[in-house]
Hints:
With about 160 residues, this protein is mainly beta. It is built from two helices and eleven strands; from the N terminus they run E-E-E-E-E-H-E-E-E-E-E-E-H.
Amino acid sequence: MSAEQTELYSLLVPLRGERLLVPRACVAEVIAFVVPEPSESNQDLPEWFLGYITWNGRRLPVASFEAMSGEEAKQRPGRTRIVVFNTIGDALDGSYYGIITQGFPQLVRVNADVLTAATEQTWAEGQPVICRTRMINEFPLIPDMERLEAMIAEVSNAERPV
Length: 162
């Protein structure tokens, strides 16, 4: 009898210079890029918080993962999309948020045979990255989804209309 092999359907989400590896269940939809509406508040917002879009009748906060990680956020016209993520916790008011991406995510099957941790690189405290992995010939980042949601919640929950 052969050993049961556990696989997880995942998505490689293309950023400008990186790729994120996320479970397929985390992604609700990939939509065409819409310029987010800026915040109506006068508070000083982080550069990575791009504003809000309307998606399925909901006010959806949109962020740049690159800028959250300390890089400059640049979009490539024509390729830019918004990946709508399902929340995994309850830090964020609402069940969804958007992250800017540079193209369509690629569906991949991940298992222990193709995925290993690349532990050479460390991340600054507070960044939304758990680690970099090695997946055959790719080196995607595993985002810290809870930290990502907490960062967005800190801004968007404070922005919520009264």
